[in-house]
Amino acid sequence: MTTLANLLLIETRPEIRAILEKSLSGGETSWEEGVLLSGARGRELHALAAVADELRKQQVGDRVSYVVNRNINFTNVCVKTCRFCAFARGIRSEQGYMLPHDEVVARVLQAKAMGATEVCLQAGLAPDLTGDSYVQLTEAVRRAAPDLHIHAFSPEEVLFGSQLAREPVPVFLARLKEAGLGSLPGTSAEILDDELRKQSRPRASARSTGFTSSRARTSWASPPRPP
């Protein structure tokens, strides 16, 4: 720790200092402690930032990395009616679209030619999709660009696909991983309070999307099989 960081820690409240010191020693922050940290202001906020920077330095040093990514939304048709969503269209909308695999692959190859290292595939929950649709799309992209990382399908899309396939989430995730899926984005789980969630989005519960995310973390605990 730097001298400045140590001075900042000394000047924080004992309860804040205890949390930050626990983090520095490798301890995990509870949600209650996270709530307390969210109220940090002034020197305590600077102390929080200094501890975060120290942990970053311990983990990765001064190395900075990034990916060149292209997002491909293969359909905007969605069975949900989330009130704040400006992207989705209903099944009868003239503005709805569904990209065929050839078009998705063409966009993937275009991205690769421009230096992309990753492609992100996400979309609405279209009623015409099946569980196999997600697997087949992943396979098509993997065949076309086996060296690109496939970052695709939100936890809610995985849950939707598993329900269409009538398979448990872990089984469906295993199929996607086998097809070439490299990782999942963390979207569609932003509102974690079910009562608030019901007011804005008639989607799956926070518990169900959280379960899907946790199963994904378990699935990726072992390295993905090579294509």
Task: Compose a concise summary of this entry.
With 227 residues, the protein is mainly alpha-helical. It is built from 10 helices and 3 strands, in the order ααααβαβαβαααα.
Structural notes for this entry:
By secondary structure, this protein is mainly alpha-helical. It is built from 10 helices and 3 strands, in the order ααααβαβαβαααα. Strands 1-2-3 form a 3-stranded parallel β-sheet, covered by helices on one side. Strand 2, helix 6 (131-144) and strand 3 form a beta-alpha-beta unit. Helix 5 (101-113) runs parallel beside helix 6 (131-144) and helix 6 runs parallel beside helix 8. It starts with a helix and ends in an 8-residue tail after the last helix. Residues 205-212 and 221-227 have low confidence and may be disordered.
